[in-house]
Specification:
Layout lengths: L1 H10 L6 H22 L9 H11 L1 H14 L2 H4 L21 H4 L5 H17 L3
Amino acid sequence: MQNIVFICFFFGPVMPLLFPVGLASLFVLNTMERLMLAYSYQKPLMQDSLIAKSCIRTMRVAPFLYNLNALWAFSNQQVFNNKVAVNDGASIYPLAGHTFYQIFTQLNPATPLIILFFTQTCVLILKGPF
């Protein structure tokens, strides 16, 4: 379950189709676990609340990863301004001109996410990620 959530949150900003796919995956996973518990398992699984609590604590990091990837993807000028970096043959990969400072110096779709990023960072530092 955590794998599905983390993959959807990390790659979701650049592939929004992952959110409905992840929701369907979680629905199927939940349905299968309930059916297996009702019809297949001889004894119930021996689990306590510690597993659920640690899962919820770990899930606090997923929105932070979403925000980091969204900041990077939405500040990319090649995507939104249709600027293409030309390869001059000096290196294998052309320099795209996409730097960290563009997030703060240009008005782009990532600008509102800066406030959210700093808020999430403060919350993660104060409460601790785990």
